Please model this.
Amino acid sequence: MLRLWSLWMLLLALVSITMLVAAQAASAGTYTVFACSPTDSAGGWQPVNTFPSGLIVGILCGGPATGPNEPQGPTDEGALFAEDSTNTTADIPNGAEAGWRFTAPVGTSIADLTYWRSLHAYDQQSLVPGLWTGEGTTLESCQSPPEGTHECNSLNNQGPTTFTNLHTSSLFFGVRCSLVDGGEYCVPAGPGERHAQADLYSATVTLSEAASPTVSSVSGAGWSGGVISGQAPLALTADDPSGIANVEVRSSLGAVLASAPQSCNYYLSAPCPNLSGATIDLDTTAAPDGPQSLTLTLRDAAGNATTQTSPQVVIDNHGPAPATALTATFSGKEVILSWIDPVAPPIPIASAVVVLCSVTCTPASTITASSPPRIAAPAPGSYTVRLALIDATGRASEPATATLTVPPPTGSTGTAKDRLKAIIDARGRLYLSGPLPKGVSGAVRVCWHSKRGKHALGSRCATLHVKHGRIAVTFHPSARARRGHITVTVSKGHSLIARLTATETRSK
Model:
């Protein structure tokens, strides 16, 4: 019974290890690298020639990716090629090779290969065209038979040749001298003849990479905490065996602040660049205002990702929300203000700015956190109060509004409206005359305007000088203007003193 239990536990352990290995393999990403036709690029394949006196390597890429049809025999056109020379008498030593080598970047391995190729050998068993792994495994070769036709042909039929699950560090495609039957060297061909030829027309190499990008440093306004707005720079240094394919920054509230695909060339074994002090601009306007953190994600060419999270930042592009429940109350010689600040503004509110508007607006008054919410009262009249909140970075809210009426000074005999008169006589002349409230002196502005419904029928203004506390002026409105409702205003500076409706009087 104990032996069965031990066997069962061993089986469970083997299953667990198998599942772990499968999970680790599944976590590795892959990317694909191309070479040769239809472009003229050798891609990640590098030329190798250890015996130039008798072997040749060349590049004639640029034909169809599927290579040429070869019913007439092998051709180098459109290929990365390797072959023995047709014009040499040099004996080729054992182990000499010429061809093209693809080496996986450190941290990656070659998983699969699909390529279009042609292999041809004639009358020389020891000089062999083919494909080998970096560990020496022969994936395919074409060796002349010892008798009979003395010829081997694996010519291109415009169909691909594929190898999977290679897990190798490099590939070599070309010709090699591998002595058989105790010879001392590979015999060179006669003039105009060739013993071995290897042509690679196009290749797709799939590389596997389990590593994720390594981030050396992240800095800049977008990564230093504090308050950010607008375009916030981020400086980044990172590297990876296959390079950095994309940089993305998201806020913890879900907004994408940056997505920066890098310039990658998938004809290179490490197709994407590594980053050294690269600057990425974060568009903070894509995120809502308020405290949040930022997540940086880097992906390599194989799709493996690394993430880092910033210190908390506060995005403040729009300032605080408007104040609510604003009221303005006249008290003695002051206006007392009251309002409710917005809940949890992005940045603490430092002050408020208030203006009073009638015909025109008063200069802005600043209310700091340390001062009471009150300002000096303006001249008597009716006003619209506009109050904007200012946060610690100087950004202002939209204004909140309230209404305010400032009465005439105590002790005056009635209001300006009660004592001033605006009359239109029988001849259509408009008279305005009468006393002003105490304390009003100098120049005042008198204006009339006529409206019928929403249509303006006319208007005029005049500047008068107060004499002995009184004013008098005569206007001549047109017949069209007199058919409307005529309103007369008296103001001084930004303050409205009186607003009257002109009345008609008839001569007896």
